[in-house]
Structures
1.
Amino acid sequence: MAKIVCAIDSSESAQLRYEAFDQDIIRIGRAFDNDLIIHDLFINAHHACIRIKDGRFECEDYGSLNGIYIVHAQGSGGESKVSGTVPFTTGAVIHLGKTSIRVYDSQHIVAPPLLLKEIKPVVPHHVFTGLVIVLCQFYFVYFILIHATSVRANVSPVQILLGATLTLLALVIWSALWAAFTRFARHQPRFVRHLTFGCQWAVLIWPLFIMGKYATFFAVNEAVYVTGFIVVSGCMGVFILSNHLAIAANMTFVKRTTIAGVIVLSLILIPVMSFFGNRRNFVPDPGHYINLAAIPKRIIPSIPVSEAVKRLDTLFKQQD
Amino acid sequence: MAKFFILILTLIFFAIHPARAEVSSSLAESHFKKYLSALYQVESVSVQSNKKNSVGTGFQISPQGHIVTNYHVVADSIISPESFHIRVFMSDGSEQTAGIVNFDVVHDLAIIQIKSPSAVIFPLGSSEMSNGKKIFSIGNPLDLGMTIMEGLSNGYMDKTLYKKMLTTLSLNHGMSGGPTIDEDGSVVGVNVAIAGNALSFLVPIEFLEELWQKVQAGGRGASASSTYQIEKQLIAQEDLYIGSMLGRPWEKQRFGDFIVPSAISKEFTCWGSPGDNVAVWITEPSLQCEIKDDLYISSSVSAHAVSFNYSWIQSREYDPFRFYYLADLRVSSGYRFELDSAGEKDVENFKCRSDIVNIAHNPFWVSTCTRQLKKLTQLYDVNVRMASLGEPREMLVVELTLGGLTQASIKAFLDKFYREIQWQK
């Protein structure tokens, strides 16, 4: 039995949207980890929460920019921003940004039951969408970005423009898919929602790894290259993970599924994508050292001929 | 289809007919008649399919049934005795199997032995030949049947690594291993290779005599150690060959901003191309040098191959980053090794490493790949690709290939090669 029922009037749709919640606390905001997500630019990512405490409703503002306004069931209030925690009763309307939420307790369900979204797990659907996201991200962004703009022959400005346009288009398509994915996941049960949330972050790690690769542009030998790659990618990873953990720490639901999503997908994605996208990484060739053009030859560290000949032994040893 | 075949056979017949008609002298006729029964068709036969893999000619030199042929005719049976054996056809069409007695990889000679030999043998002649002396060559061209042809000796070549006699004979495939006799009927050389139109090489008789003496002295053990013996012969030859190459000062030439080794010994030939219009944005003159005399070991492996080519890549229009990206594609476009058709059964996989080496006061990106030969484990193939760094619009790209050499020779050669390159702007 739902404890809190909300009727939401937002710019998202012409109709009222009804949501029912089982828990004692509902977080409201634009961010994905909220219990009630509202796509309204005038609302903060984590805007406010509604709680049931000792059988009574109360509303807390998280220090949001635009604040909240409460018009109580009796018609009073609404003139000024609420600060801190404010108690209210069923039927009150909370105004946040351009959205209004009327809050009821379970005894006062006024919405037609059909409009209450019955939530069913759709795991195959989720897996499919996840795959689409991964593939799109991989093909569009990586291949087109790298290949369409790469200098293979006598490239004309038109070709570069075309490459850039394609890249931009790919990013738009990717973003659209990302948004669609988010919209899809929003109506899924919490477990699926949080798992997919984790997946999205894991997918996001990959382009950051590519960025890590190109951040090592000034590597002059393998050691510097590898170190640079690990440091930059590592920093990215730590940044993403800490960011994610910070969000997770703020959430009321079980965090383990989300973190498991990140870890599992990262573990699968990174080697797979490394293999397909970056196979040349595993063979030493001058490909990573195109940057040497920018460095005066006096600074490039090199070994003497005698040392180079001596190092042939390491190759011969591998064969024996 | 049948008509087509008849046509071809007729054409071949007419093509060879004049050659036979030329040898109208009674001398050639009598020699041919006299020695026909000492001639054999030698085939290397696959054990599995019982079909011939290579075919050549052999001639008998002892009453005990010792037959001389080329190493390359029976190479497969020597390298892989488990998959190939030798089949010999006598002039009357009877068939026998033969065993390897001894061979000389370097001079492409092999002596095999059969159990029931013919009574006729070829006498070995002397190796002193003057230019213009008339000689006759006998063999089984294109597997068409024993043929005798007449030619002139042109003395010994000095452009080849191994002593060879140049003749005006028009040898064909299948005549390999056949004898070349003088007017007295004694053997003066062994047919070995086609040099061009109506030009052929012979192995001088002195090498055959050397080998024959070894056989008579009872050298050479069982066929199990044949790969060991090949290695031994190759390494002995390599000491002379690479040793002499390293001992001499190398001929060099200016190429781009560098002075690079070119024809480093007289056996090398170099070819150049200006490469002005490789593309609108880039010029790429190139220089290729190689040695023609690499040694045949088996149908897919050769040894003692040395080749190198240089490209001088220049661009006026490209910014350094694009130029290097492009140059990178040229340098790293896979580790191709086009020396031979060596497959999985012949060689190990390449092992590679990369270093930045200071050559002629310039940093060079050097990618070195080596692989070991599977049957001859002391020998390696090496492929080195190197590119000069640090100049925003110019780059020297070198690809160096060494085939079938020992570790020591490879190291010594590369050391010298790197040190010989000079920079002069």
Note: The domain at 4-115 of chain A is CATH 2.60.200.20 (Tumour Suppressor Smad4).
2.
Amino acid sequence: MLKTGKLTKTFGGLTAVSDLSIEIGKGEIVGLIGPNGAGKTTAFNLITGVYKPTSGSIEYKGRNIAGMKPHRITKLGTARTFQNIRLFKNMTVLENVLVAHHFRMGTNLAEAVLRLPSYLSKEKATREEAMKLLDSVGLAEAAGEPSTSLPYGKQRRLEIARALATDPKLLLLDEPAAGMNPQESHDLMDFILKIRDDFGLTILLIEHHMQVVMGVCTRMYVLDYGITIAHGNPADIRKDPKVIEAYLGVDVC
Amino acid sequence: MKSPLAKIADRRVLDASLVAVLLAGFFVADSFLDPFAMQIFKLCAINIILALSLNLLNGFTGLFSLGHAGFMSIGAFSCALLTMTAAQKQMNFFLKPIEPWLMNVTIPFLPALIISGLIAAFAGFLIGAPALRLRDDYLAIATLGFSEIIRVVFTNLQTVTNGSLGLKGLPRFTTMWWAWGVAAAVTVLMVSLVRSSYGRAFKAIRDNEIAAEAMGINVFRMKLLSFVISAFIAGIGGALLAHHLTTIDPKQFQFLKTFDVLLIVVLGGIGSISGSIIAAIVVTIMMEALRFLDGPLNLIFIQTEGTPGIRMVVFSVLLMAVILFRQQGLMGQKELSWDLLSKAGLLPRFKAKE
């Protein structure tokens, strides 16, 4: 599904991501973990086209997408959420989801502005689809509310719903459990597994919350200072001395 | 309890009666306003058009553009040259003759209006394509620069625009019906644009560009689209203004002209169509009504001989007050609607939306 080869990104003298080679198969949930500043979000930004890689390749379904514009990558079927929530603040919950439908509606400006029947029927179908999506993630009652009036956990959920509205095959979640209490993160785990099955997704996940990562991921990659220091299933990672060192530091004496 | 159908009927009745009242108002205005008041009344409509076009950029797409005067002048000169007769052109171009291919072009007002809008839109495309790679203040500076470039080019294109002499004796096409008719059409189109899928894409870019791009929106193309539409409307506004004043020269479209429009947009509310309309009317009327301030004043203690420009101080103070105390402007991002009025208690309550 997704395969990166020796992906590297440098900012001036700083190598944020170095020789990152990950491979994700269809239907997998893979974790990307590491201490702060390890380059996880940079890796996401490379895969989604926000940054252009300095070197290396990114293959999505056998197609090289390195250096492509973000909106093109989204059209090919990769959607993401953001670490710091980036909702459209002055829009309602429903409108947030509708924006993600825009590129799939296939309307032209003239029919939209003149409100021709051809546009109105597409708009109606899109609204129904968006409401169905909101219903499936439990946000249907809040559809008309401003997106910022939602509680934090629901804002995160709306971000995921919005990403799902682009009809992705690959979903990248950047710290979905950040700032959640234990109950909320528990619900989130069930939610991630549910959308994987309902929407036939492959998921790559950045997360600090170990319970969540260990609970949902089948495999994981560990980054530290841009370098991949470990790779394997949750049980192995937990025991890996390099990982323990990166997270807890090593005894000097 | 009213049925949902009655609720729709209520709004339709209100809409229809509003249109009827407005139409009646226009007929009354047409026959009762004296020529001077009529001039200002028409100017209100033109300012509505210009404010809406700037608001599409600043308010709905979040692009801080200061190039409006440039697009207005392109529209104004295009329309003037397209509608003037050969004899009128000959009278104007006495220093240097007009380009021969422009000499005998004389077409009716409506196609000329649309063509001048299209020319302004094309200029918007040419300017937007490089400038929209910039953001925020940098975009403002770049668009400001382009609009000054347009002015300087027009001042020197003696054989096309008659240079700094400008064009005089334009046919007085902008009647009340033309001005307000176009203003109404622009308002309707703007409302439906903003409510459409494209409008949502614009607003998404305004709220969060990175997220909009991640949602599959081609941000650059959408920005360019918004810029071109805005230039089109500004061109039409400029054309109407030209045939309202009947005399134009490049100097009129200095960057101060952009600030007049920006003032209206900021006072009305960045991102509110009804705010722009209300502010356009209020500001246009006040610009004239406060003219007595420019004359000799007798403030009991202080007596002045009359200083031109004092009335502009009032607007500066007003603008400062708005920026200090009500940054969102008159309407913020809200729209004046029947629902808003009923929430404010000015109308009987509708049934809540389903």
Note: Chain A is about 40% helix and 25% strand.
